[in-house]
Design goal:
The protein is 69% helix and 0% strand. The protein has 1417 residues and is mainly alpha-helical. Helix 62 runs parallel beside helix 64.
């Protein structure tokens, strides 16, 4: 039937395609000088997905496009020529409207009335509608609006026609043709003769398309005579008679009651040399459908199958539509049974449903909805939600609630929708249909579904906005009838605000006998009165005997807001006293002291620094009144408030808060912070003394065990445990178990666990101890013991945090990397059975990894598929597919793809295959996949693969991803290019320039971040940026400041902004000069401005200026002090200026003010004191930093080494040696006080050419090595010789002390550090030359390959690779990866399979395997 065309997508695609040509054509005259727009328009035309020619007629469309293009030239005299700027503006607006409607049609096959109205209003608002825009709007008023009645669509078209004509749009033949098409699709009755008369009056000549459509209009009415007249006219004009005309004649004869002649039209066509096509057969099928002749429909379909033509699902849906309209619903199912559910079925079927529902064929529409194929189970666990579009349309069409209930019940029973009633309710609320919404809630209640208070909020919001108290009360009564109690948010936001006064609201509720929830209502009143700052009313409410018990948490936020808005300290204090002393408001644990304390903390926390400073006096009075009311807070809360006040720079208030803390608690709190830790040696002595006195030793024993565990001294801890086993408690065993697990000692860890169980089988360890046991037992082959631990966790119901899933993954993955199939399978099965973690792709991935590690791809595939069957997840599918493709195992690849298609859908399968082909560099196959018709972008999947390429530095693969997705529908091209530019960031500006060119050719509009990244790449490589870089206000203002540093705005806030900008740009001198100018004008700034300027002045070495600024700031801001960072910078600057006494004084001042200096500041000061030989001051600094050294992670070697250097500066080498030698010996004998590296001392001595000191230090080091087996000093000297190029001295030292070669840990550490920066390969090579029998040569080779990769030294890397193979070393994957990248960069083939994962992956893997500290590359 021509009355309703279901080929919406095809028609719209024709519209959009012709429209694009119009844009290109119109733009040529504007930008013909460059030709860019013209080329761009054709480019879009080339790749935009186009419908089949059969859908809209190839020849007619080309003719139509030609006529559309030339028509404006024919009527050009009717209007004045529009100016070029206006034409350009029209083209831009048209492109915007085109994209809007284009996106809607491609996604859904339809356009909503709301969207079309929006585009229409936007075009009208500009005042310059173009002919193209008018054509676009008119063509959208037909079958693309299935949710509107046919008459409404036509009325909309007429409104558009009249309005745009009024605004000056010029109509040509294409517009009239579009209007006829709309009439046909909307079954609008009109006179073709009158229509031609109107065209003649407008001086518009009809064309072939006009005549064809007028013939269709006559035929739809069964007027063969009228159609024949136009047909004869076409013949006289020698216009071709196409299949479209014949199909219209089939319809015309049928509707005239002459079905025989309708059938004979096919013979006439063949005689005329035109083969009947799908269009003709559809017209004949519709003719049979209108007669209800199902036998002839089936016979015709059989005949079509014998021809070369093919009827699509969309074609058959037109037959369904004809059957429904003709009143033959009993035959609809027969046609539906013939559908093949091809691609695009769902949107077409949805539009048919909407059309049927709109025209009142509810049952048939619902029948089609139920015929939708059931989707595969959602991999994310989401419930089915199909039918939403239908339910929403039913609500909009005012379908009775009883009918809606029936639809919802059947949808749920058919498993098409998990919660249809709830969604329908959502639609009713959205459409503001109150009666329907209440009926639906009653149905939900009857079915046992929850009805919650917030469901009523949209209904109440309408009455609240209109101040309709009666309407709001009606809703409250309905809530009561449904058994739903209004909560506090309901009363606060929607009920009490209906009237202006809460007391009046009470009266209205009582007057209408509205039941209320008194607790929630009173709390809501407190909220509203607090928000409005009426604290007197709050006091009345809280002190009223009728006020029910309401927890402070329910109105705390509103009360804080009220306190900030009120200036009455007495009222604030009175309310706080009521909260503290009246038990109704703090009933829950931990009581009023904590609750009110947190209220005070939140009050201060909610205020800005300027607010606190402005209200400082008021807050002081408030705290004093609280003290007089005997209100107390805890010491912990006081500490939090103190930190806030410190941050706000109002330290004077701290003492006012301090008075609220209980005296005893404050005292113990202070003592606790002054306490210092006792070391293990002292604890052991104390333990022995207590044992000798036969006194209890439990507490001291626990402290000793914990101290030894903190020092990682496992052997000593186990010795102590064996000696005092009878006194060991559970806590001691727990920390020992954890220590043994950390040290990979499975035997001892298991023994300790068994001892605990023997002592008390009911003891439950925490989760981390159990997981540590499982990990270490599994690693050492004690699988049964590991599973027994898991069983015990289940039996004792051990609490596991959410992060436990990650721990289980690492346990399983470690076993998988080792290739232990049974361990992985049994542990994973136990974890699942005991319910310790939910199954996920990540947690299941070791089940696949273990087979991939053993290169058993088929087993890995089976494991992947089995995971889906058991757990509904498909782990490591991408890696399995890549392996299958590499092996060209097409049978198993097909098996995997069939499974993915069945379980996750065809689109997911296509993406997995696309990524696998890309990964394996089969780009031709990848192109075929991504060009599959109907495939659309999945942003998350594309970004995942792009990030994977970035992590693995696979620039070629990423380039192909970006290129191949160019035509992918809805692909975010800027995102793709941004990912590609990330890989170009490091010294590859030529590649970045090529990317920029490609973006321009593709007409990609880059986001700000993309332009900034591109500009950074060009700037870093000394290239000119070929575009304007988008700047933030910060950069723009800074540039402005630097360009005209002598001209500044007068206003204070602008000056302040300038100073902040220049400070952040580290332009210290300019910022300071700006500040001085402001100071002359008497301007004052906030704390942040002074602080930031101070820091940048100190960082740049402007000490005098910084001190002057500090003094000025003190006069402007009461109590101004430097913060920790600025104070530390001050010390560093003073040291740099050699003002060591001032620096020492600054450090003392900092510590006296409870500030913490940075580690760098202390280090610089101590080193400078050593330069001066000031041993006394070094000792003083060490004493001052005693309590902070641990928190700052400051090694005691800082003071030891610099004390030694100070003695050497004073030419007192003997004392220096006497100072250090006993410490080195005692450190060897007592592992609790080890002495680490002296390399710093040796380096300084060598750099300063103090040979005498070096000789004596070397003699000391050799003596310690030979007599006391203390090898660290001599090894440090050896490595310092190597590092400073004194290789001969290193060789001589090695000859005298051969044990140096056995210091594996120190030597490997030197190799590791040497590999951290480029250009250091020679150091490792020299070390291997001196130590030819180095025990860790394999490790050294690994780091040497890293150095060659850093230096891009392919020749050396190749030589190293050959050498390792010749010496029989097993080359690790990380080294192979680095060597492979060097070869590829040089364009050479890789002689081995390149490891596929990222550098980070292999670095982590190597670290796990060898236990070495490794960087992550």
């Amino acid at each position: 039937s021509h009355s309703l065309s279901l080929s919406s997508v095809g028609i719209m695609a024709a519209l959009l395609r012709s429209a694009q040509l119009l844009v290109a054509s119109a733009s040529r005259s504007v930008v013909s000088a460059t030709g860019y727009e013209s080329r761009n328009g054709i480019g879009r035309l080339r790749w935009r997905p186009a419908p089949s020619l059969r859908t809209w007629g190839c020849k007619s469309t080309i003719n139509q496009i030609r006529l559309l293009v030339v028509a404006p030239q024919e009527v050009g005299s009717a209007k004045e020529e529009i100016s070029s700027p206006i034409r350009t503006k029209q083209a831009q607006q048209f492109d915007w409207a085109l994209n809007k409607l284009d996106s809607s049609v491609k996604r859904t096959g339809r356009i909503t009335k709301t969207l079309l109205q929006k585009v229409f209003h936007d075009i009208c608002r500009t005042g310059y509608p173009s002919s193209n825009q008018a054509l676009l709007l008119l063509r959208s008023c037909g079958s693309l609006l299935p949710e509107l009645q046919l008459s409404d669509r036509t009325e909309f078209a007429h409104r558009i026609w009249d309005k745009l004509q009024e605004l000056g749009a010029v109509y040509d033949v294409s517009h009239y043709n579009a209007l006829i098409k709309v009439y046909l699709q909307n079954e609008h009755t009109f006179s073709p003769t009158d229509f031609l008369t109107k065209m003649e009056a407008a001086k518009v000549q009809p064309n072939r398309v006009t005549y064809q459509r007028l013939i269709a209009a006559y035929c739809n009415a069964g007027d063969i005579e009228g159609a024949s007249k136009i047909l004869g006219f076409m013949k006289r004009k020698d216009l071709p008679i196409t299949e479209t005309v014949f199909s219209s004649l089939v319809t015309g004869h049928s509707r005239a009651g002459d079905l025989k002649n309708a059938e004979n039209i096919l013979s006439v066509m063949k005689d005329a040399g035109i083969e009947p096509g799908a269009e003709t057969y559809i017209a004949l099928l519709n003719a049979y459908a209108e007669k209800g002749d199902m036998d002839k429909i089936k016979k015709t379909l059989e005949n079509v199958e014998k021809t070369e033509d093919h009827l699509t699902d969309r074609d058959l849906m037109q037959v369904v539509w004809s059957l429904a309209k003709a009143g033959y619903p009993q035959h609809v199912q027969d046609v539906l049974d013939g559908l093949t559910y091809e691609r695009g079925y769902i949107p077409d079927a949805m539009n048919l449903c909407l059309n049927l529902k709109t025209q009142g064929f509810d049952d048939i529409a619902f029948q089609i909805l139920k015929s939708f194929p059931l989707p595969p189970d959602d991999q994310n666990g989401d419930s089915p939600q199909h039918g939403n579009f239908f339910l929403r349309h039913c609500v909009n069409m005012d379908t009775p609630s009883s009918t809606l209930k029936q639809f919802c019940s059947e949808l749920k029973a058919s498993n098409l929708h998990a919660s249809p009633l709830q969604f329908t309710l959502h639609c009713a609320l959205d459409a503001k249909k109150t009666d329907l919404a209440l009926d639906l809630m009653k149905m939900m209640k009857e079915e046992g579904l929850p009805v919650r208070a917030h469901y009523f909020w949209p209904l109440l919001a309408t009455y609240q906005k209109e101040k309709d108290a009666k309407g709001a009360i009606a809703i409250l009564k309905a809530m009561h009838q449904l058994g739903v109690e209004p909560d506090m948010e309901t009363y606060t936001n929607y009920v009490l605000t209906v009237v202006d006064d809460t007391k009046a609201a009470h009266a209205v509720l009582q007057e209408h006998n509205c039941p209320v929830n008194s607790n929630e209502l009173y709390a809501s009143e407190v909220r509203i009165e607090s928000i409005n700052g009426r604290l007197d009313n709050v006091i009345s409410l809280l002190s009223s005997p009728s006020m029910p018990a309401v927890d402070l948490q329910s109105f705390k936020g509103s009360l804080i807001l009220g306190f900030k808005r009120s200036g009455d300290v007495n009222q604030m204090a009175k309310i706080t006293e009521l909260l503290y002393k009246d038990g109704r408001y703090c009933q829950t644990s931990p009581g009023p002291i904590v609750a009110v304390g947190y209220f005070l903390y939140n009050l201060i926390d909610s205020m800005s620094d300027s607010e606190v400073q402005a209200k400082e006096e008021r807050l002081r009075q408030y705290f004093h009144q609280l003290k007089e009311m005997n209100i107390v807070i805890t010491a912990n809360i006081y500490r939090g408030i103190r930190k806030l006040l410190d941050t706000y720079h109002v330290p004077e208030l701290i003492k006012d808060v301090r008075v609220l803390v209980d005296g005893k608690e404050l005292s113990s709190f202070s003592d606790l912070h002054k306490a210092t830790r006792t070391n293990a040696d002292d604890l052991e002595k104390e333990l022995e003394e207590l044992r000798a006195k036969n006194e209890p030793i439990g507490d001291i024993l626990r402290q000793l065990i914990m101290a030894l565990c903190a020092e990682e001294n496992m052997q000593k801890a186990l010795e102590v445990k064996a000696r005092y086993e009878a006194d060991m408690d559970v806590g001691c065993y727990a920390v020992l178990i954890k220590l043994c697990c950390r040290h990979d000692n499975a035997e001892e860890a298991l023994n300790l666990k068994q001892e605990v169980t023997r002592k008390d089988s009911s003891v439950t360890l925490d989760a981390s101890k159990y997981l540590g046991l499982v990990k270490v037992l599994g690693k050492h082959g004690k699988l049964e013991d590991a599973i027994n631990i898991l069983k015990e966790m289940k039996e004792k119901d051990v609490f596991l945090k959410d992060a436990a899933g990650t721990s289980f993954f690492h346990i399983l993955n470690t076993a998988a990397v080792r290739g232990e199939v049974e361990t992985v399978n049994r542990l994973h099965e136990a974890i699942m059975i005991f319910g310790f973690a939910k199954p996920s792709s990540n947690l299941c991935s070791p089940l696949v990894t273990v087979h991939l590690e053993k290169d058993n791809v088929l087993a890995a595939l089976e494991a992947t598929l089995d995971c889906y069957k058991k757990y509904k997840c498909i782990p490591r599918l991408h890696d399995v597919l890549c392996k299958l493709i590499e092996r060209e195992d097409t049978d198993h690849l097909q098996k995997a793809m069939d499974f993915v298609t069945q379980q996750q859908g065809e689109m997911m399968m296509l993406y997995e295959l696309f990524f696998a082909f890309l990964q394996t560099k089969k780009y031709k196959e990848a192109r075929k996949i991504i060009e599959t018709p109907g495939l659309r972008a999945r942003p998350g999947k594309l970004l995942w693969f792009a990030e994977k390429c970035i992590a693995a530095n696979q620039i070629e693969t990423l380039e192909n991803l970006v290129e191949l997705t160019q035509k992918l529908f809805e692909c975010d091209r800027d995102e793709m290019y941004f990912c590609l530019l990330k890989l170009c960031k490091e010294n590859n500006w030529q590649k970045a320039e090529a990317v920029w060119t490609n973006m321009q050719e593709e007409n990609v509009i880059p986001r700000e971040r993309t332009l900034k990244l591109l500009a950074d790449i060009f700037k870093q490589n000394g290239q000119e940026v070929p575009f304007d870089v988008p700047e933030t206000w910060y950069n723009e203002a800074a540039d402005g400041a630097s360009n005209s540093s002598s001209t500044f705005p007068v206003l204070e806030n602008n000056l302040q902004k300038h100073i902040m900008i220049l400070s952040k740009k580290r332009k210290a001198k300019e910022a300071y000069d700006t500040f001085l100018q402001a100071e002359k004008k008497g301007l004052k700034f906030n704390y942040s401005t002074y602080s930031n300027l101070l820091k940048v002045l100190l960082a740049e070495g402007y000490l005098e200026e910084a001190l002057k600024l500090k003094n000025i700031a003190k006069t402007h801001i009461k109590g101004f002090t430097l913060n920790d960072a600025a104070s530390s910078l001050l010390i560093i600057t003073q040291v740099r200026r050699d003002y060591l006494k001032d620096a020492l004084l600054s450090l003392k001042t900092m510590l006296a003010e409870d500030k913490v200096p940075t580690k760098l500041a202390v280090t610089r000061l101590v080193q400078a004191l050593a330069e001066k030989g000031d041993i006394e001051s070094i000792n003083e600094v060490e004493d001052m930093m005693k309590n902070l050294s641990e928190s700052l992670q400051m090694s005691r070697m800082l003071f030891i080494n610099n004390r030694v250097l100070a003695h050497i500066r004073n030419n007192d080498i003997e004392t220096a040696i006497e100072c250090i030698e006993p410490l080195l010996i005692s450190g060897k004998q007592n592992s609790s006080t080890p002495i680490s590296s002296m390399a710093y001392v040796f380096r300084k001595v060598i750099e300063e050419n103090q040979e005498a000191a070096l000789e004596k230090l070397s003699a000391m080091a050799e003596r310690l090595a030979n007599q006391f087996a203390v090898y660290r000093p001599v090894t440090d000297i050896f490595l310092t010789y190597m590092d400073t190029g004194r290789v001969d001295d290193a060789k001589f030292l090695l000859q005298r002390c051969s044990a140096i070669a056995e210091q594996r840990e120190n030597l490997v550490s030197y190799v590791t550090k040497s590999s951290q920066k480029p250009g250091k390969a020679q150091k490792i090579t020299a070390l291997l030359d001196v130590l030819p029998d180095f025990q860790e040569k394999e490790t050294a080779y690994c780091y040497l390959m890293k150095c060659f990769a850093f230096d891009k030294d392919l020749a050396s890397a190749r030589a190293l690779y050959d050498k390792m193979k010749a010496e029989g070393w097993s080359i690790d994957e990380l080294s192979l990866k680095r060597y492979a990248v060097l070869l590829k960069d040089a364009g050479e083939p890789v002689p081995f399979p390149e490891p596929p994962e990222s550098f980070k992956y292999y670095a982590e893997k190597l670290k796990r395997e060898k236990g070495l500290s490794s960087d992550s590359d």
